Task: structure prediction
Amino acid sequence: MAQIICMSNQKGGVGKTTTTVNLGAALASFKKKVLIVDLDPQGNASSGLGVKNYDNANLYHALMGECSVFEATYSANLPQLFIVPSNAGLVGVEPFLYQKDKKEIFLKQALSSVSAEYDYILIDCPPSLGLLTLNAFTASNYFMVPLQCEYYALEGLSQLLNTAGIIKNNFNPNLALLGIVLTMFDTRNNLSHQVVRDVKKHFSNKVFNTVITRNVRLSEAPSYGKSIIEYAPQSIGAERYIALAKEVDNRFVQLNARLNEFAEQAPKERTEAGLI
Result:
């Protein structure tokens, strides 16, 4: 069963789509099977992976019940990387959902038919806290927050975390913060260094060690319809996203090890207590 992770920040221009696409590509380079779900009507993740000719079957059609997620899935440039693309038509989904009961679980239901086929499903959320984002949080096990190393970086973060808490309490008790990833770090800028210190001070172990630096190659890659892993595999941008992917994957390896340890201990404890 896939680990489903949504990438969210209501502020635009923080590296959300860049992180979704390149983290997905980096995980795919580790032979992990990855599905990217483009939940942003801007469709930047779709164009950034060079997906074309999907007007008749995309995320809009899957959420409207006109096709399955499987039918709306397209292969990206890497063997283990796939995407459910979107375009501006996705804006028509929210008015449709508002008329429905259990409007927050449409994406969860749509993904349930394919989640067993993947190691990771990464959802690129729109830069808002609307109904599409609510669907993403309800469908996910975890969420990640890309945070740019700039002034006002923390603005809105507390609101996002509070919203996630409300969703956890009311719709998805399994939802948890996987981590905050710092993006757009400028080594020459004192403010970037200060933001890193402040975020790590307030959120400590919830901040990934890998910091994504500003990189020309990262900016260029989407215009060629490629991830940084394909476009410039030797660049600092590729190096950082490979490092981030290792951190993400290691967190789940450690989590699974703890769960297995707990599962092994539980029968022994019940036996000693005379329960079995």
About this structure: The mean pLDDT is 91.
